[in-house]
Write a structure and sequence with these properties.
CATH architecture of the largest domain in chain A: Orthogonal Bundle
Oligomer: homodimer
Shape of chain A: globular
Order of helices and strands of chain A: HHHHHHHH
CATH topology of the largest domain in chain A: Tetracycline Repressor, domain 2
Structural class of chain A: mainly alpha
Distance between the termini of chain A: 78 Å
Largest sheet of chain A: none
Radius of gyration of chain A: 21 Å
Strand content of chain A: under 5%
Chain lengths: ~220, ~220
DNA sequence: CTTTTTTGTTGACAGTGTTAATTTAACAGT
DNA sequence: ACTGTTAAATTAACACTGTCAACAAAAAAG
């Protein structure tokens, strides 16, 4: 029994070793394109087919890498929040940290969102789903905190509100990272108005059901 | 001269033929993964290396396909706008059409944004860049129209404003298409508050420089 | 008609993901 | 210690892929 347990640990350690190698290849060899079983195995010092004992698929391996990336961006957000006290400040810090992290590490961001080999979310490993939920949870928690303290309006479900922030942040990073902002419009011009808009409109109680927008005059 | 022009047309026609074959493979064989030179060439009835006379790269071929996709989503937006008169109605119709198109054709949307083999935008074909600009231009033009008619505030550059809309719409579609909305939050819950927010806050003149958001109370 | 340029074909190379067969190593039971 | 059993790791092989070089066919230019 104890024996069995130990071999499980060893197994997990080996898996982690392979993941380390994969991460190293990913970071140093130029992103996702460089991550092949043969490449990773070579870096880990094992034969090219050995990783199949630890990952069913290439997608399985990539999912594990994705999970790491989500944990990383989660920690970036938490780090940026640490010095802030109010929910408003936390929310802004978190959002800016997300964008900064994504923009400054485009390879990781690409890994997280731009490789949907199989859209089959059911195949998403529990590991990845958990990491993703935890990352989004950072935002959701701050919004809950703000609503409970009365700093934010509660006319929106915290989950919906955090999804809205995520949508904005992801749209920003995604378009920037894939080089879509052209014609003299930079991401720096967009960050402020976007988050300002999201904060004021979503977290304030006014205008919560004005479906048609009146022209100003 | 006329002779020369005609052979150019023939060449362009062949190129279009190959693109048609590529599009067919893309649509019927399961998206981007199925588009290989060999596959496309087989569908076009030529040998597997012949497309190299018309496309320098696989990326070159994909760029041409991407251009078609952008033209398509542009026409979808214009179609949806046709019945609308006011700039406000046009803007809403355009935004919804963009989201609907993207969500209902995830393969095409993936093609447009999720395959940045080379982030080198300089290599983006003129064809693609033009198609992209035209698609975004639909939104920019409506905003200009709204600003000129006084329906929208002009405190934002129309280009920046349209980029903001694009950011929101793309964030929405991108997250939806890659299956990120989980835990009981659907895209339908997000569309209305997001666009309502963008419209009212960005296109109204109030709150244009309230950098810190006051707590409501 | 000859020469040159443009198209299309085939063969080849270096990779890839993945599976099957096979060897190596570590454990359990007697 | 010698089994038998099970897991781990390796190698060979298959069916692909993008890409290029060598070559044949055809068309255009002179």
């Amino acid at each position: 029994m104890a024996r069995k347990k130990q071999t499980d640990d060893q197994r997990a350690a080996r898996r982690e070793e392979i993941l380390d190698a994969a991460m190293h290849v990913f970071e140093t060899q130029g992103g996702i394109a460089a991550v092949s079983f043969r490449n990773v195995a070579a870096k880990a010092g094992i034969s090219y087919s050995a990783p199949y004992r630890y990952f069913t698929d290439k997608d399985d391996l990539l999912n594990a890498l994705r999970a790491r990336a989500f944990r990383w961006i989660e920690s970036e957000m938490k780090q940026a929040m640490k010095s802030k006290r109010s929910a408003t400040a936390k929310l802004e810090a978190l959002a800016r940290a997300y964008v900064t992290a994504g923009v400054s590490c485009p390879d990781r961001y690409e890994l997280m969102f731009f490789e949907l080999d199989n859209t089959d979310i059911a195949r998403n490993s529990l590991e990845l789903r958990a990491a993703k939920n935890d990352a989004l949870g950072v935002c959701t928690d701050v919004i809950i905190e703000g609503q409970e303290s009365g700093a934010f309006s509660d006319h929106l479900d915290p989950l919906v509100a955090s999804h809205l922030f995520w949508t904005g942040a992801h749209g920003l990073v995604s378009l920037e990272v894939s080089g879509q902002f052209v014609m003299g419009c930079t991401i720096d011009q967009l960050i402020a108005p976007l988050f300002q808009t999201l904060q004021s409109q979503i977290l304030n109680s006014e205008n919560q059901d004005s479906h048609t927008i009146a022209a100003n005059g």
